[in-house]
Amino acid sequence: MIQITLRQIPENLNKQLRILAQQNNTSLNKTIICLLQKALGLPENSRKARDLSDLKGTWDSAQADEFEANIKFFEQIDREIWESRRFA
Q1: What three-state secondary structure class fits 85?
Q2: Does 4 reside within a domain?
Q3: Which position among 8, 12, 28, 65 has the lowest Cβ density within 10 Å, counted as fewest Cβ atoms?
Q4: Domain count, the chain
């Protein structure tokens, strides 16, 4: 990848770029690249993410509560099994 250094960035531009990056939860570098791509009419980088970020924030509170209730069972410790394997 090629690097470019920008100098004499106006303070108001710097502030707005940082606010936008924070709002989008992205780095300042990624925010600027995305803005340049949009301004030039270029497609955004289509490299597929290899994580679960596309699922982030997709549950509403009722779904999250239901999930928490459903996994509560796994927090229980079967003392008899735990004790029998403790010193095995």
Answers
A1: helix
A2: no
A3: 8
A4: 1
